[in-house]
Amino acid sequence: MVKIIADSTCDLSKDLLEKYEITILPLHILLGEAEYLDGVNITPREIYEWSDAHGATPKTSAPSQDAAMELLKPYAEAGREVVCFSISSEMSTSGNVMRIAAEELGCSRLIKVVDSANLSTGIGHLVVEAAIMARAGADAQTIVKRMEELKPLVRASFVVDTLVYLHRGGRCSGLAAMAGGVLKLHPRIVVEEGKMRPGRKYRGQPDKVVMSYVKDMEEELKRAKKDRVFITHSGCDRELVEAVRTYLTSLNRFDEILETVAGGVISSHCGPGTLGVLFISGDGGQG
């Protein structure tokens, strides 16, 4: 069976990783001189505390070459096919690290790397789809071909409670002009062609903003691929998350409504109070 590996920015929960037998290669998070592994020895809360205390956004970096080789080596030695997923190459060199690791191991034929052109559970959707295909007996080439078909159909967006983290990090093009003196705005951040850009802007309290954001997607949600939808957030109030779940349930569209909490890398750049509803367009397959 093809092995599925993803970098830590896919933001899949421990339960989902275990269910689909997915292995994670963590990115690095640097708080000043201290270096941590995303999802291993640092929490988003610790990141926020450091960031607010220092008035800075933590730096993040791709996995090390040695770590990638160490992870891939057993599969290479066993002659097992592997499909790896990385955050958008516009945002990190994570995918390139995996690709070079495969070359160094002399196993580029066995180990394929998919540039998700996405982030968070936008990647997670592809990873889960790939794992399901692997279990059904698909080979790596077939899985990669299907992922390339699905990539442009992934709908990844989120609203942020504060622009401070995105503005500090400079990861969202078009945000600088919006940020000056209008930090009470809550923009919808959309991932398109591997990059983040600001979309519709909301004002008001977080609960009103989030529900407006979700309801603005209603028509597309009603036509989405039915298998699953993700609610991914960086520590939002429980009541707000449940309100979003209730709304999505009311659409009578999805087989699964899955909640995940954003990992350290995504949280570092988006800040607390961020929430996204991520799905695959109905053109993605059944339903």
Secondary structure blueprint with pairings:
Blueprint: E1 3-7, H1 14-19, E2 22-25, E3 28-31, E4 34-37, H2 44-54, E5 59-61, H3 65-77, E6 82-86, H4 94-104, E7 111-115, H5 121-135, H6 140-150, E8 154-155, E9 157-159, H7 164-169, H8 175-179, E10 186-192, E11 195-202, H9 206-215, H10 218-222, E12 228-233, H11 238-250, E13 256-261, H12 264-270, E14 275-280
Parallel strand pairs: 1-2, 1-6, 6-7, 12-13
Antiparallel strand pairs: 3-4, 3-5, 8-14, 9-10, 10-11, 12-14
Helix pairs in contact: 2-12, 3-4, 5-6, 9-11
Description:
With 287 residues, this protein is an alpha/beta fold. 39% of the residues lie in helices and 24% in strands. It is built from twelve helices and 14 strands. The strands form four sheets. The chain has a four-stranded parallel sheet, sandwiched between helices. Strands 8-14-12-13 form a four-stranded mixed sheet. A three-stranded antiparallel sheet has the order 4-3-5, covered by helices on one side. Helix 2 packs parallel to helix 12, helix 5 packs antiparallel against helix 6 and helix 9 runs parallel beside helix 11. The longest helix has 15 residues. The mean pLDDT is 90.
